[in-house]
Amino acid sequence: MSAINREQVGHLAELARIEMSDEELARVAGELDLIVESVASVSQAAGDDVPATSHPLPLHNVFREDVVGETLTQEEALSNAPDSQDGKFRVPAILDGE
Amino acid sequence: MSERIVELSAADLAAKLASGEVSSVDAVTAHLEQIEATDGTPLDAQDRSRGTDGLNAFLHRNREEALDVARGVDEARAKGEQLPELAGVPVAVKDLIVTKGQPTTAASRMLEGWMSPYDGTVTRKLRAARMPILGKTNLDEFAMGSSTEHSAFGPTRNPWDLRKIPGGSGGGSAAAVSAFQAPLALGTDTGGSIRQPAAVTGTVGVKPTYGSVSRYGVIAMASSLDQVGPCSRTVLDAALLHEVVGGHDPADSTSLTDPVGSYARAAREGSAEGGLKGLRVGVVQQLSGEGFQAGVQQRFEESLELLRAAGAEIVDVQTPNFEYALGAYYLIMSSEVSSNLAKYDGVRFGLRVTPEGTPTIEKVMSASRAAGFGDEVKRRIILGTYALSAGYYDAYYGSAQQVRTLVQRDFAAAFEKADVLISPTAPTTAFDIGGVDESADPMQMYLNDIATIPTNLAGIPAISLPGGLAPEDGLPVGIQFMAPAREDARVYRAGAGLERLLTEQWGGPLWRERADVTATVRDFAATAAQGGK
After folding, report:
1. Nearest CA of chain A to the CA of B351: how many Å?
2. Which of B72, B206, B391, B468 minimizes the number of CB atoms within 10 Å of its CB?
3. Domain count of chain B?
4. What is the 3-state secondary structure (H, E, C) of B128-197?
5. Which residues from chain B sit within 8 angstroms of residue A61, using beta carbons?
6. The CATH number of the domain where B142 resides is what?
7. ipTM of this model?
8. Residue pLDDT, tens place only, B360-418
9. Candidate from B117, B342, B359 with C-beta closest to A79
10. CATH code for the domain in which residue A23 is found
11. Is residue A27 part of a domain?
12. pLDDT 10s digits, B191-215
C-alpha cells in the first residue's frame, strides 16, 4: 500500500484511455493516495476463510429461449454515431503510420 | 380550488382523476407551470455548466408528449375505459434512465444530445401505466456524487434553501418532488442516491431489493449495486410507483422472478391504528452517534420514542463489520465503474474529439474521454483501474468482496433480533453548494453515504422518510428503515407507520413548515441578477 506517484497515475490513465495533463496527473495522484489510504483497512478485514460475494443475491445460470426478439434497425443503431459510412461506424486509423 | 393540484399526493391526485374532479391535462399543466416558475433560467446561455438561477431540477422538459399522454387519458376516462391506478398522474425520470423521444445525458458532456433509440423497461412500464413523463431530472454525472454538484449542466438547488445541495446523485428527482414540480419521480440508488437526496430535501425515497426492479435501459454505474426506485412525498405514493415499475424482466439477467409485492397495502396497514404494534425495530449502533450532527441525532431519537409509544419493540443491534463498508464500497463501485464506462469511446455514440493531425483511434478515444468526463468520473475510473490492476486485485477488489460477505452476515444476525432496522439516513443535513473541497479530502464527500452504503452491498431494501427539521439549521432530517432481501413490504409498513406518527405530531406534512418555494426562487433569482450569489 505504497504512496501513489504521478508516473503510476500516468500508466493508469493510459490504460483507461483518458488523456491527462501533468498538472492533472499530480492532482489525481494526491487524491488517489488519500482514498487508497482511507480504504486500506479493507484488506485486513476478512480472514482467508471468508468467501467473496460478487453479487448481492445468489442467481445462477440465467437463460432464456433462443429466439429472435426486438432488435434495433441498422439505422437506429447508427443514429447516434459520431461518424458512419455505408451502414457502418467509421473510425480513424487503428494503427500508427497507416 | 382550495388545495393546489401540485400539492396533492399522487394517491389523492389519482383519486381526483378517477372521480373526474381534476383532469390529467390540468394536472400536467399545473406541474409544468410549477417547473416553469421554480426551475430558473440559465445563468449563461452559452455555458450550460453554470446551471440556472432557480432549482435546476430538470435537464429536459417533455411538455408536448406529457400533454398528449394526459389528453389520451382524459379521453379514455370520458369513454369509461378501465385505467391503471396512476393513469394520468405525472412523473419525472432521472436522466440516467433512457427514454425514446427525449434526450438522455446522464448529466455528462459525453452524452450531450444523445437520443436513446429504445426505452428502458421502467420507462415502458410508466408508459403502460399511462403516466405522463414531465421530463428528465438532473444528477451527478453518471450518478457519481452526493450533491448533484458534479452535473455537467450545473447544480440542482435544495428547495428548502437554494444555497444548499439537494443531495446526490438523484438531487434533481428529489428536488422536483420536494418543490411540487412532480408528485412522483424515478431515481437510482447505488450507494444512497435515492435515499440521501430524500433525506436532505424532506421527501421519501426507496431503494428496493436488488433485482426487484429492472435495470434494462438504466445507464450502468456499478452493476452489482445499482437499483431503480421511487421518489415521492408520502410513503404510500412510493409504494404505488414501486408497484408500477417492479417485477421480472427477461432483458435484465439480474432481475428476480418474484411477483411484485403488495407494497401499497403494506403502507396502508402500517399507517392504520396499531399498525406498528409488536414490530421489532433494531437500532443499528454503528449508524448513529459519533459523526452524526446533533440535530440529526435528536430527531432520530424522537422517532424511536414515537415508535416505542406506538407499541414497537426497540432493540439494539451490532454490525461490527460496517466499519469496512465504506472502503469496500468505494473499491467495488469504482472497479465496476471503470469497466462499465469503457464503452464511452467516441466510436458508436457520444462525444468524439479528434486531435490535430492524423491521430489514431486510440488518441481519439483518449481525447474524447478527457473532454467528455468530469473530474469525479475520471477519479473513479482511475481508482477502479488501480484496484483491478495486476498485483493489487487481491488486496483491493478481492478483499472488498469478502467484506461484502461480512456485511451480509452482520445484517443476517441483526435480522434475527429485529424485523426492520433503523438509522438516520445521512449523517448531516444539507450542506452549502461548493462547501466541500473534494480535492483536499475526497473522502469527506463520500462520508455522506456512510449509513446508506451497507444496504447496497447486501442488496436489501431500505426507505428514507422525513424525520423533522434539525433545530440548529431548520433543514430536513431523514430516517431510514431497512429490511431483509425480498421483504420490501416491511419498509413500507414501518415507514408509513412512522410517517403517520410524525405527521400527527407536526399537524400535517413536513413541507408545510417551509416558505413558499416559488417566492424563495424569485428572491434568489433577483439576488443572483444583482451579482450576488
Report:
1. 7
2. B391
3. 1
4. HCCCCEEEEECCCHHHCCCCCCCCCCCCCCECCECCECCCCCCHHHHHHHHCCCCCEEEEECCCCCCHHH
5. none
6. 3.90.1300.10
7. 0.94
8. 999 999 999 999 999 999 999 999 999 999 888 888 999 999 999 999 999 999 999 99
9. B117
10. 1.10.20
11. yes
12. 999 999 999 999 999 999 999 999 9
